TrEMBL record:
It comes from Asticcacaulis excentricus (strain ATCC 15261 / DSM 4724 / KCTC 12464 / NCIMB 9791 / VKM B-1370 / CB 48). This is Cyclophilin-like domain-containing protein. Residues 40-146 form the Cyclophilin-like domain. It holds the Pfam family Cyclophil_like2. InterPro entries: Cyclophilin-like, Cyclophilin-like_dom_sf.
Length: 147
């Protein structure tokens, strides 16, 4: 009788271990799936795929947000955030391109680049526009929602 109980117990423990392993791997898969956020302004929407770093994770925790997007320089639009984001652990990057979404730590704002730009030590790239950058080309200041 004791042998049957031991076999049942081992079978149950093996099944539980398998279920726990499956749940852990599913959670790990979910963490690797890139997060997307949507910026809506001037009757248009921009979808952005975020890079997984401390800065983008902190931004996600602030959402949803209602802010303003405005022109800056001749190659970007900026969004002033209600609080600063962490940049620890972030590293210099290359292959700067229109469509990049960055955080500019010295001012505490987001920067959407729609023309060529160069990396500077205050920038942290946090994402890339999923499609067309055309909505960024409309000059002006607009109410913005981020979700």
């Amino acid at each position: 009788m004791k042998r049957k109980e031991d076999i049942k117990r081992r079978t149950l423990l093996t099944a539980l271990a398998g279920a726990t392993s499956f749940a852990s791997s599913s959670l790990a898969t979910d963490r690797r799936r890139p997060d997307k956020i949507v910026f809506a302004f001037n009757g248009q929407m921009i979808s952005v795929t975020l890079i997984d770093n401390p800065t983008s994770r902190a931004l996600m925790k602030l959402l949803p947000l209602s802010l303003t997007i405005e022109d800056y320089a001749h190659n970007e639009k900026i969004i002033r955030l209600p609080q600063r984001l962490p940049t620890t652990g972030n590293v210099p990057f290359a292959q700067e391109a229109p469509g990049d979404l960055c955080y500019f730590a010295p001012w505490g704002n987001l920067a959407f680049f729609y023309a060529a730009y160069e990396y500077s030590s205050g920038l942290t790239r946090i994402g890339k526009i999923d499609g067309n950058i055309a909505p960024l080309l409309n000059k002006g200041t607009y109410k913005l929602t981020i979700r």
